[in-house]
Design goal:
Belongs to the class-II pyridoxal-phosphate-dependent aminotransferase family. Histidinol-phosphate aminotransferase subfamily. The chain is an alpha/beta fold. The protein folds into 2 domains: 250 residues, Type I PLP-dependent aspartate aminotransferase-like (Major domain) (Aspartate Aminotransferase, domain 2); 94 residues, Aspartate Aminotransferase, domain 1 (Alpha-Beta Complex). Helix content is 37%, strand content 14%. It is built from 13 helices and 11 strands. It has a 7-stranded mixed sheet, with helices on both faces. A 4-stranded antiparallel sheet has the order 8-9-11-10, covered by helices on one side. A hairpin with a 6-residue loop joins β8 and β9. The protein is globular. The structure holds pyridoxal-5'-phosphate. Pyridoxal-5'-phosphate binds next to α5.
Length: 350
């Protein structure tokens, strides 16, 4: 059924990866003259004159403990967007292969496909943003190389049903990429706990949301050591900077702050989810397992969007997304920001 060697592009299977100086020699020597670095030091306030560890061993050791996986099951990317791009490039020959997406969903899957000249097959989520039996059948029957399942889904906020994802994992011949960018906010176990059962499973997570490190650009992919090995083979050699690796290590030592912020954001989400339906202009607030809420506005969501903009409040207009007519996506902010949003909406409503 699933055969990784068969799924990987033939040119990638055959190619020899770039071997960097830091691949060939690891560790500290007295005299490091192998990488054309500047031994004198760095301009600016901090030292970054040495190339970083291409495989980010220290960060992965800490992450492995936190996530209950082996370091060999972790890939780190310059944002999970890099992992999305590499997964498409790993499996799809340009102009020939295709990937599957389930709209409405995260926009980068489509961009990665377009950039790589890879065709898109779209199977729509149901009106409550789940997989219908027909769509599951369609995925299983598809010869796409890869399917992206976003759970909790962006922009809708809901988790996909675990039993449906499991059916896809058992039936689909390609890679099943479960994008868990919002997993830290979700009341469900991560699919990283099921990696041993499914050789075709790739789980994406990120430091951009609950960790509060969107500006750092650090994303994670979890999969079998074989899949991770291929991602390492095709990534840019030094894709994670030394500054990012150091900062990630510091963040991982700061778990209490991560927990506290997460709890505060969940409280803010519950408060907004309770308040929004009291407004006449709010038709529906969709259930969310993420740090945002998708809400349907009447009679005109775009007018609400423009009104908020005029008040200096930016939200995401999702009106043109399939199944999302009349909706805005509202990120949960600080308590003050949430109150300002609600006050502006109340003012517009009255
Ligand atoms: C925010 C988000 C990401 C994160 O992307 P990064 O490149 O890690 O910042 C990935 N997937 C989805 C669905 C997202 O909403």
């Amino acid at each position: 059924m699933f055969d990784l060697e068969n799924l990987v592009r033939p040119n990638i299977r055959a190619m020899k990866p770039y071997s960097s100086a830091r691949d060939e020699f690891q560790g500290e020597a007295q005299v490091m003259l192998d990488a054309n670095e500047n031994s004198l030091g760095s301009a600016g306030p901090a030292s970054f004159n040495r190339y970083p560890d291409p495989l980010q061993r220290q960060v992965k050791a800490e992450l492995a403990k936190l996530k209950g996986v082996e370091p060999a099951q972790i890939f780190l990317g310059n944002g999970s967007d890099e992992a999305i791009d590499l997964l498409v490039r790993l499996t799809c020959t340009p102009g020939q292969d295709r990937i599957l997406i389930l709209p409405p969903t995260y926009g980068m899957y489509e961009v990665a496909a377009n950039l790589n000249d890879v065709a898109l097959e779209r199977l729509p989520l149901t009106p409550d943003f789940q997989l219908s039996p027909e769509v599951i059948e369609g995925i299983v029957a598809s010869d796409a190389k890869l399917v992206f399942l976003c759970s909790p889904n962006n922009p809708t906020g809901n988790l996909l049903r675990a039993a449906d994802i499991e059916q896809v994992l058992r039936g689909f011949r390609g890679l099943v990429v479960v994008d868990e960018a919002y997993a830290d906010f979700a009341a469900a176990p991560s699919w990283t706990t099921r990696l041993a059962e499914f050789p075709n499973l790739v789980v994406l997570q990120t430091f951009s949301k609950a960790w509060g490190l969107a500006g750092l650009r650090l994303g994670m992919a979890f999969a079998s050591p074989e899949i991770i090995g291929y991602l390492n083979k095709i990534k840019p050699p030094y894709n994670i900077s030394e500054a990012t690796q150091q900062h990630a290590l510091a963040a991982l030592q700061d778990a209490p702050r991560f927990e506290a912020m997460k709890q505060d954001l969940l409280q803010g989400r519950d408060w907004l989810a309770a308040q929004l339906p009291t407004l006449d202009i709010v038709e529906e607030v969709f259930p969310s397992d993420a740090n945002f809420l998708l809400a349907r506005f009447r009679p005109d969501a775009t007018a609400v969007y423009e009104y908020l903009l005029g008040k200096g409040i930016v939200v995401r207009n999702r009106t043109t997304q399939p199944g999302c007519a009349g909706t805005l996506r509202l990120t949960v902010g600080t308590p003050q920001e949430n109150e300002a949003l609600l006050a502006a909406l109340r003012e517009y409503s009255e």
